[in-house]
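Sorry, can you check?
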Amino acid sequence: MSRRRLVLLAALSGAALLSACELAPPDKPTPVIAPVAFKEAEGWSLAAPADDAPRGAWWRIYGSAELDGLEARLDAGNQSLKAAAARYDQARALSREAASGLYPTLDAGARTTNTQVSRAVANPLSHGRFQDNLASLDLNYEIDVWGRVRDLARAGKDRAEASAADLAAIALSLRADLASDYFLLRGYDARIAVLDETVGSYGKALELTRSRFEAGYAAEPDVSAAEASLELARTQAAEARLNRARLEHAIAILTGAPPAGFALPPLVLTVAPPPVAEVLPGALLQRRPDIAAAQRRVFAANADIGVARAAFFPQFSLSGALGSESASAGRLLTAPAAAWAVGPSGALNLLDGGKRRALNAQARAAQAEAAANYRQTVLDAYGQVEDSLSALSLLGREDQTQQAAVKAASTARSQAERRYAAGYAAYYDVVTAQNIELSARLQGAEIQARRLAASVALIRSLGGGWTEG
């Protein structure tokens, strides 16, 4: 083996040994204030992040084929989801770009120059004009002594993984918004059905009251009260239809369809919220993609600190060239025209006016910001789970008491109507009983829709369901 090859091999071996240096802080879980259990549900514990755990099509637990179809349309047509997917593709490309620094670059080049030397200077050549032709392959490789390139690659990988988690978080949020809007819309369908039935009933009551007034069995204020009740019911029905239309438009936009060409036929749902598991492992919370994204941004910030610290140390590189050079283009491929060069180089900045210290301080501050954002994301997640659990539990109790209230109000209204017909009560007693029953039935329909929406909120807060598979 020639001496030159031995020198080159020694240089490469030294570079490999030196590249073991690492200046970035080690990746480790960011400490957070974590409760040992959740306040609103027993049997919960905390676990390590697992955002890559399977979630499945969680919306199918509601058994609604129509909702299943809407969720499929969201995947295909939602523009916010497509934008998030495009951002993820950008992050992956940037990650590959950062990782490319781990490998040498090879460039092919060729040039030809014609030179005329001035006659006014000393000229050792026999003539003042000559041609130079060069064809070469140039190899460059940064010897990653301090881990700068590795940290750049690691930061790019962490940010790409964070972008993937962002995509999953947006998809989860959009799907949950769609399911929640769907159930709230169906809640308005139930309220509209109650109001339409009430309008029909009040219309008949108005006709009966007018007949009784004409026959002398009712006073004129009774007719006015019946008319007022009817018109108020019609007003409420119109308002409910307005709110339903807004939700229908929102669902259309979520599925990527123009609202003008989208319609959901009225339907009164009888589905109840799916039962929550008796024991909810805290590991489910750690599947939340927003928590994973925040943690991976902390890791990327750690790697950025390593990049900033490496700037204080010399930068080494290895370069080489192989080609041919000749005064005649036709002789470039002949043996005498062969040329090559190889050797290491190093550079160290001695004065930069404090730029590297500022960049290092900036990297550390960015890491502190990312850690604080991560802790806030975890705290928000705890709060959302608590809110959803309490909402689901308390709305279940409300539904029971409200159904009892509807039953009692219906009985009171029937009794008031019989007493009025028998002449033992004033019509205002009937109007009061009717209004109480209508309010109770509307409130009952609203509570049922809110229970379904609360179950969707719990699924969202747990990262996509409460099953581990």
About this structure: The mean pLDDT is 84.
